[in-house]
Amino acid sequence: MTPLPTTGSAGGDPRQPLSEQNASEKNDERFMREAIQLASLGIGVVEPNPMVGCVLVRDGRVLGKGHHQKFGGPHAEVEALRSLIAPEQARGATAYVSLEPCCHHGKTPPCSQALIDAGVARVVVAMADPFPKVDGGGLRLLQAAGIETRLGVLGGVAEELNAPYLKRLRTGRPWVIAKWAMTMDGKIATSGGQSQWITGHQARNEVHKLRSRVDGVAVGMGTVLADDPMLTARVQGPDRLHQRVAARIVFCQHRLPALHSKLMRSVGEIPLTLVIGPEVPSAQVAALKAAGASLVSVSSCDSTEMVREALSLLGQQSMTNLMLEGGSELLASFLSADQIDECHVYLGAKLFGGQTAKGPIGGVGIDQITEALSFRLASIEPFGDDIRVVYRRDITKSK
Question: pTM of the prediction?
Answer without folding.
Answer: 0.88
